[in-house]
Amino acid sequence: VQYYMNIAQDLPPKIDVISPEAGAFRAKLSMVRFQVEARDDYGLTSARLSFRILRNEQKGEENMEKEVGKGEFPLQLTGKGQTAGGLLSKIVQDFGANEGDRIEITAMAKDNFPKIPKEGKSDPVVLSIVTPDELRGIIAKEQSRIVSLVGKVRDEEKTQIEAIKERIGSEIKEKKQGNKAKAANKAGAQK
Questions:
Q1: 3-class SS of residue 114
Q2: Nearest CA among 103, 106, 91, 127 for reference residue 38
């Protein structure tokens, strides 16, 4: 009797930041809700959010981005087996960022592989920190864009409804004409 074994290599966990979306804007006193999803072939033991604060600095005529702070927050994972999710809410000022800064956030998860656990990282998500007035302007612009899109969808829907009504009307008219022709043929055949 021969037995064959395939030994699978331990892969690092996969972790994704579900929210906030990349390129989001927040004011310094805004609440940010982080949601992550993680999965691993052996199971997960821990997760954290790592962040860097990036600031633009003018050096002569050059505009350079400089890291002015960094840190991390533990992330509680909930789930069973090889898949888990995590939520964390923080106020932007908890990061130590100022208006004009950007916060680059990366989620990390560690697996429970014996001896040498592996760690996986998400793609970075960047939040831009703006003034409350700038945030209100961004929100107003987005609301206006959404209202415009809804209007376009509504107009398209009306156009489609009219086309359907027209097609149904034509089909009903054709059916009535067909029924009249059948009745006339029947009447002619009876004479």
A1: coil
A2: 106
Q: How many other β-carbons are positioned within 10 Å of the β-carbon of residue 113?
A: 17
134-183 per-position pLDDT tens digit: 889 988 998 999 999 999 999 999 999 999 999 998 889 888 888 887 77
The number of beta carbons lying within 10 Å of the beta carbon of residue 105 is: 22
- 3-class DSSP assignment, residue 115: coil
- Using CA atoms, how far apart are residues 85 and 16, in angstroms rounded to an integer? 10
Nearest to 49 by CA among 33, 65, 61, 25: 33
Residue 45: both structure tokens together: 């033991």
- Taking the model in full, what pTM does it have? 0.70
The strand pair at 83-91 and 31-39 is best described as antiparallel
In three-state secondary structure terms, 98 is: coil
**CA-closest candidate to residue 37, choices 66, 6, 71, 78:** 78
If residue 38 lies in a helix (H) or strand (E), which one and from where to where? strand 31-39
